[in-house]
């Protein structure tokens, strides 16, 4: 899964960079019955050890203190980092990771799985209506790419 900027839909990072408030993977939350309530907050915590280069650059520019994370495509603010003030999560057992993204500023993109449906089988029977101008007809190869079909000869 990919994390994208909600404003410009630019790619930010892979979902594997996201961790919970205790620094563990998000899968740990699903397995733990007593998951910390901070894991359902308004931010996605980022594992800065495996974060993309643009996050490392922003942290370096902030001298590993505090600063804002901006989208590398549109420069919109999407998160922050703070290595100076360490905050504890709501269970007060752990210090939350210092790098985070605002959930309201990013989208988690899933690869859509298109199920076989009546509509998808009907798409194969569609034909292109030729216009009066013959130069605007669509070749079978282009039509196949438009509808993502395979051409069988």
UniProtKB/TrEMBL annotation:
One Gene Ontology cellular component: endoplasmic reticulum membrane
Coiled-coil parts of chain: none
Any GO MF annotation of the entry: ubiquitin conjugating enzyme binding
Domain of life of the organism encoding this protein: Eukaryota
Signal peptide segment: none
Biological process according to GO: norepinephrine metabolic process; positive regulation of proteasomal ubiquitin-dependent protein catabolic process; protein polyubiquitination; serotonin metabolic process
Transmembrane segments: none
PANTHER family reported in the protein's UniProt record: E3 UBIQUITIN-PROTEIN LIGASE RNF180
Protein name according to UniProt: Uncharacterized protein
